[in-house]
Amino acid sequence: MTKQPDENARQLLDLGKRSKPRVFEDGTPEQARLDYNAGFLSVQGAKETVTSLEDRQIDGPNGRINLRLYRGIDTPSRDAAALLYLHGGGWMLGNLDSHDEICRWFANIARCVVICPDYRLAPEHRFPVGLADCAATLTYMARNAAELGIDPLRIAVAGDSAGGNLAAVLALMARSGEVPTLVAQLLIYPNTDAAQTADSYRRHGEGFGLTSSTMRWFRDHYVRSSADILDWRVSPLRAESLADVAPAFVLLAEYDILADEGLAYAERLREDGVPVVLRQWPGQIHGFVSMGKYIPVARQAVEEAVAAWRGFEEVSDQTMP
User: What pairing do the DSSP bridges indicate for beta strands 52-60 and 63-71?
Assistant: First the structure.
């Protein structure tokens, strides 16, 4: 444990205090998006070159879904590993540009194809609409594997914050056959319990970027009613069992209101027999992986996620008959 966020995180927090026009919950969802979109490019690092980048559309249960496809440097043209990346933003914010830096890192480090959907956002599209878009994207990847140049049996899912929530839920859906099989889930400071009662909401509820009041505002715009909070598709920590889901890499930030529920999820996974690599990053704040301009260890976090993913694949290969 550290006594306070590290120097780079403190610099970023100070910058946020000086530049942020309002807290999200003091405005409308539209104003929150304008503020968020005006700020995310200023904290991302330089964009790495990838072999190719393509925007396309697919059909989903709620209409067209915009996707961005990244093919990393030295990625095989056939039977490549693939990653479905689900961006964070409290189910209300984010788009195909907000997490572009992370997707490029994953594509190059893993030498894989990354697909990021611009899933529908709340409150215009409350749960489970955005989740359905993510599920449709995963199904598209598996069904069109040959055209995409990927191996349908080597698809992993990843996401940060609300995207980590969606990724964890997709892993549970894959277990039951609702969506295609996943080989790994890479969860970056995931939201796993919408009840928001974990002690880290008290310890880090103010002064560390994401606040407890903002997180409550996000949740209340996402769910249709309080009953949804108990639904495992909103709160995967409340699933009856986590057994037999894909192996998990779980990354947590020390000064994050989501730290305790993320830790609880990793512990539940282990208790239910799921291979887990847990990384608790000291001195860091929520969102640090998408703040590469100020947080030098952001790319390292992605490197560790990829290393865990590859480790899970190696174990799987060794255990196959």
Answer: antiparallel
Whether 88 is covered by a domain: the verdict is: yes
Taking phi first (over 0 means left), then psi (-120 to 50 degrees means alpha), and beta for anything else, what does residue 44 get?
Answer: beta
The contacts of residue 52 (CB under 8 Å, 6+ apart) are 69, 70, 71
Return the CATH number at 132. 3.40.50.1820
CA distance 233 to 113: 26
- Please indicate, yes or no, if residue 319 is contained in any of the structural domains: no
Q: Examine residue 175 and state whether it is found in any structural domain, yes or no.
A: yes
Adjacent-strand bridge partners of 186 = 158, 249
Q: Domain containing 301: what range?
A: 7-313
Q: Is the pLDDT of residue 321 over 60?
A: no
Classify residue 124 by its DSSP letter: T
Domain count, the chain: 1
Radius of gyration of the chain (CA): 18
**DSSP letter assigned to residue 75:** -
Q: For residue 3, what pLDDT band results from cuts at 50, 70 and 90?
A: confident
| 56-99 tens-digit pLDDT | 999 999 999 999 999 999 999 999 999 999 999 999 999 999 99
**Arithmetic mean of pLDDT, 104-111:** 98
Pairing label, strands 184-188, 52-60: unpaired
In a domain, 318, yes or no: no
Please give the structure tokens belonging to residue 15.
Answer: 């910058």
Active site residues: 161
How far is it, in rounded angstroms, from Cα 179 to Cα 81?
Answer: 18
Give the C-alpha separation, 262 to 253, whole Å.
Answer: 10
8 Å CB contact between 187 and 265: yes
pLDDT single digits (tens) 168-209: 999 999 999 999 999 999 999 999 999 999 999 999 999 999
